[in-house]
Amino acid sequence: AAEKARRRAEAKAQEKAAEKARRRAEAKAQEKAAEKARRRAEAKEQRQAEERAKKRAAEKRQARENAKRAEAARARAAEKQRTAAARSRALGDWGAKIRRHVKPRWHAPPASNGMSARVKLKVSRSGYIRRLTVTSCQGSPAFCASVKDAFKRAEPLPSPARNDLFSENLNLTFRK
């Protein structure tokens, strides 16, 4: 009986030891699983942080590119505006030059004070009038005819400072 009790006590002790070992193994497995889950979560967080950083970098790059494009567009617009302004000034200067050239050859009819005529003309490279039209006449028909006649007598007209102006229609107003 003592032997039986000793064997039972040994068996019980072995069961307890086995149970303790099983619990330790389970705890260790749970720790490993928790560690694995933590590493996976950290890796996922790291990937997400990297993706956010890449996205921010791409957004910054896009913003810089957009800013460069906008600046280039502003520069093109400013250059276009400067070119247009220079062209307009050159056209105005050429018109004034023609007006000064024509005025001495203009014999306005008597009593034409306060009258005006607006002409539209196109000039060839050699200075001859290709087209001359009186677009508005605030005066007598004789007054407007005198303006047309003055242009004919003034040929060849002065050339513009810029060759690209020959393609332009020039609008000039003559007043008495």
Describe the structure.
The structure is a single chain. The chain has 176 residues and is α+β, with helices and mostly antiparallel strands. It is built from two helices and three strands. The chain is rod-shaped.
Quick structural overview:
By secondary structure, this protein is α+β, with helices and mostly antiparallel strands. Helix content is 65%, strand content 14%.
Overall helicity: 55-70%
Whole-number mean pLDDT: 92
Q: Which stretches of 5+ consecutive residues score pLDDT under 50? A: none
- The rough form would be described as rod-shaped
The quaternary state of the protein chains shown equals single chain
Radius of gyration: 49 Å
- Widest β-sheet, arrangement of strands: 2-1-3
What about the largest sheet?
3 strands, antiparallel
Distance between the termini: 149 Å
Number of strand segments? 3
Strand residue content = 5-15%
Question: How many DSSP helices?
Answer: 2
Order of helices and strands: HEEHE
Summing up helix and strand content along with how strands pair, one would put the structural category as: alpha+beta
